[in-house]
Specification:
This protein is mostly helical. The protein is 79% helix and 0% strand. The radius of gyration is 17 Å and the shape is elongated. InterPro entries: DUF2934 (IPR021327).
Length: 63
């Protein structure tokens, strides 16, 4: 069973492969690009969660 990060990388690598015409021979390149993109997204997620929490707290108690 794969973890959620690996599933996201697999899905993104597949999208990259399809976007390039589904040609063979670039699977490692697609995987590495997908891994980079997913890791960047995951690194940003806690920041997005914090911003949403602050926004909600400010809406409930503006002072």
């Amino acid at each position: 069973m794969t973890d959620p990060r690996e599933r996201r990388i697999t899905a993104r690598a597949f999208e990259l492969w399809q976007a390039e015409g589904s040609l063979d021979g670039r699977s490692l390149s697609h995987w590495l690009q997908a891994e980079k993109e997913v890791d960047e997204e995951l690194a940003e997620e806690p920041l997005n969660d914090q911003a949403e929490s602050v926004g909600l707290a400010g809406a409930v108690n503006p002072h």
